[in-house]
Design goal:
By secondary structure, this protein is α+β, with helices and mostly antiparallel strands. It has helices at residues 3-22, 59-67, 83-87, 90-97, 128-132, 160-163, 213-216, 330-343, 350-360, 374-391, 401-404, 409-419, 437-447, 456-466, 471-481, 491-501, 503-506; strands spanning 51-54, 73-76, 101-106, 118-119, 122-123, 125-127, 142-147, 157-158, 171-179, 188-189, 193-208, 218-219, 228-230, 251-255, 260-263, 268-285, 306-307, 453-455, 488-490, 514-515, 520-521. Strands 1, 2, 3, 6, 7, 9, 11, 14, 15 and 16 form a ten-stranded mixed β-sheet that branches. A three-stranded antiparallel β-sheet has the order 10-13-12.
Length: 555
Amino acid sequence: MTSRTIVIRLQLVAVVVFCWSLSPSHSTSTTLRGHRQPLGKQREGPEETIDEYDGSLSAEVFYKQYVEKKIPVMIRGGAKDWPAFKLWSDEYLNSKYGHLEVRLEEKVEGESNNRLPAGKFGIGRDTLENFLSGYRDPDSNAYIVGELPSPMFEDARVIPSMACSSLYNQIQEVNFWMASKGAASAIHRDAFHSVNCLLNGTKEWYFMDSKYNNEVYVIHRGKYEMGGLSMVNPRSVDLEQYPLFADVKYAFLTARPGDCLFVPGGYYHQVSSFGKKNMAVSVLFTRTPRNMTFDTCGGADQQHSKPLADAGVYIPYSGTGLMRMGSLDIELLRILVENFTLASGDRFDAEVMVQILHECQAPAEGYPVQESSPEADEELLQLAQQLFDILNTDKKPFLTKADLLTIPLDLWKQAVFTMEPADVANTYDFEYSIVSAETLQREVTTYFQDKSRMTQEDWLHIYMELAGGSEYFGLKVFKELNPEEKDKLSKSEVMSRLDKALERYEADDPRLDIDENEDELIRNRGSSRNDNGGGFADYARGEEMEEQDSVHTEL
């Protein structure tokens, strides 16, 4: 073969490879529209729309056209008549509600390099007063994502679209969102329907229909889990790793101060927040409301909101103690029990409850069934008997559907709390599940390689800066290391007490006992482990917040 022949063949190979690389099925990342760019760059623009109404929307239209069909809708100016819209300046919140406790998360959801923010009572727990003192700092990563304390209900309202129907008395929980600019969520779907009312700032929403389950690459486990996070990073969409996402059509809108947005449970969305102050209140309600009636306000009152303080909120949070954000859907549990009771010949007992628990644990379609064991089956049977005993206060051999309809809400709540104990992130002891005992032991060992004494300041540097803990918990641990309250500790003193001081950090589930009847965590700061999996719902994730005039235009 001559050198000329070799050159010609190499040229032909190069042409073939070039053409192959341009074919649709073998395109490189440079030809993928929006690859590794923010959400929204993957298509030419929004191809779906969200209906908008000015001021109000009748309760019947809201329910039948949007709630039942699980379609988002924007009600512009829906919260402008709230007292909170005018009153909730930082000064007002601090003076009236500063003593109340709030739950913290990081501003940008899903960023692996983010440290969870610490408040007055450790990671994830703060007072509103302490939060307000520093949340505008450019370096602040603190973001209130939790239940709205019930004393604050007096300044909030329920929009007429909900207030003038049975939904007014079927509210699961009420959530509060507050941060400075820069908060952003993952792509996700919530377990509950919600009405998110913006009080400050602006909020940009991307909506993707719930039909895009495969294309969104959602992480879900259970058959009844309507909530869930997408694996796609909205700040840098990787179309090589998640190619189907390129087919997702989306809607886009901007919420402004006073706007209220209905977000259906199970509908994918992503939210980004802007403005020096971002604040919103979300009213969450069941996906399975019962006994719906409309026009309960009557006449002209249908144009006016009603007090949140007078609404039927199933799981309110007092502003201190144990939180219950993300609890199981009480109405969904009721419906499951009623349906299984009828399917069992109008008979509900512990055996039927076992069937319900198996149904609740069923995997989502396409996911493998978890193998059982005699121990797990026995635990399930014990739980089923416990739940039946809670609901069966008259100690009957079995209950009928008619019996079930007479069970008060408090007993259904007790059953829900028994099925799924409190998420550790809702307790004072979240930090024990976040800070690594292994990291602390390693850093202490390294410290004593060239030092012979440790001060409280030295320990706090290790605990806070190197292990990512809070000052509050760091001081608690140092007190255990230093019971004699010395100025400095020797290596032997620290090392002999370190394992004992870090026991709760190493436990699988170091929560203290919780008094379910009081809904109150024993207030000596025990410990816990974050595990909100299992059950039949994945719970309401967070949205963001925004801003406006005087109180509302702090740009």
